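Model it.
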Amino acid sequence: MILPTVINISENAIRTVPDEIREASLALGASRIQTVFCCVLPAAKQGIALGAALGAGRAIGEAMAVMLVSGNSVSLPAPFNPVRFLSSAIAGEMGYASGTHRMVLFTVGLVLFIFIMALNLVLTGLLKKESAHD
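Modeled.
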């Protein structure tokens, strides 16, 4: 479900690495594999991390696919038992929710939003910290 997003964005990030970086590495005697792992991937790491973050956000928010895969059962979580994720609870119950139930579902949506924002902020902070060390 998330692989097409991650792969597409990562591939674009790798393709946007300037050819001069590859040519300089090869001119200094590095092999193609060394060039990829020591020059190209580090130059594209921010784009690859962005793809991973977008893929994770998509997986967290993709309600229908999560409902089908997880079993969509309201029960205590245990290994190998069906579970109900927050996004599938919103999608499954919003049609008939009213009053307090509806407010709780909107609060669940807010929790999901805060979680995804926190994930993006942490990832952005880590990337900025790494780029400051380079």
